Amino acid sequence: MSKAPADCATKEDIRAEIDRLDGELIGLLASRFGYVRRMAELKASPEEAVVPARIDEVLSHVAARAGTAGLDPDLARSLWSKLIDWNIAFERKAIAERTGGN
Ligand SMILES: C=C(O[C@@H]1C=C(C(=O)O)C=C[C@H]1O)C(=O)O
Fold it and tell me: What is the 43 CA–ligand 1 centroid distance (Å)?
């Protein structure tokens, strides 16, 4: 059973909870990536991988939600920027391989 931070009495307790949450985060990120993979199948050319307005929207959403949740909005922006950069590179390559473009 999971323990709230205040109920953790030892470093081992805390690390067990961090490991548990990391596992959940990986599962969520893998689910998110499933939609990115599908997006790459629907886009017609590698140039479509970058959608600046959508990137701004996602970053604004996660920063706002982070602030509400008590997490530093800059941390959320930084993490999601890295994630989106990786997804764009993935999409570009996947679309290029499928269409023969570059
Ligand atoms: C998933 C998309 O492709 C890219 C990846 C994004 C993401 O990981 O959220 C956002 C914008 C796009 O540059 C999309 O166009 O929505």
Answer: 11
Pocket (CB within 6 angstroms of ligand 1)? 36, 39, 49-51, 54-55, 58, 84, 87-88, 91
Atom 6 in ligand 1: which residue has the minimum CA distance? Answer: 84
Q: What was the ipTM of the complex prediction? A: 0.99
Q: List domains and CATH numbers for the chain.
A: 5-99 (1.20.59.10)
Cα dihedral across residues 35, 37, 43, 48: positive or negative: positive
pLDDT tens for the chain, 102 residues long, are: 899 999 999 999 999 999 999 999 999 999 999 999 999 999 999 999 999 999 999 999 999 999 999 999 999 999 999 999 999 999 999 999 999 976
Residue where the block lists tokens 């050319």: 45
Quick check: helix, strand or coil at residue 98?
Answer: helix
Both structure tokens of 29 = 């990120």
Hey, whose CA ends up nearest to atom 15 of ligand 1?
Answer: 51
